[in-house]
Design brief:
It comes from marine sediment metagenome. By secondary structure, this protein is α+β, with helices and mostly antiparallel strands. The chain is about 50% helix and about 20% strand.
């Protein structure tokens, strides 16, 4: 599956012919689907986006842990 990332930060799934969000990409990961994310020059930026998602999830989990410790 090929997902194209545009400069305006939108993601377009070429196979599904629709715009998708990061939650869609997370679903692909959880479903163990193969995909690649490319930029407007068709450079493979999959690893860069996966790191972004990982940082986001770690940050979200850290905030949840802080809230649990406060209560």
């Amino acid at each position: 599956m090929i997902i194209k990332k545009y400069k305006n930060r939108k993601y377009y799934c070429i196979d599904k012919s629709k715009f998708v969000d990061l939650a869609f990409i997370i679903g692909l990961i959880k479903g163990k689907e193969e995909f690649v994310i490319v930029n407007n020059r068709n450079d493979d930026i999959t690893n860069k986006i996966l790191l972004k998602l990982l940082r986001r999830e770690l940050r979200k989990n850290a905030i949840q842990m802080e809230k649990k410790n406060i209560i």
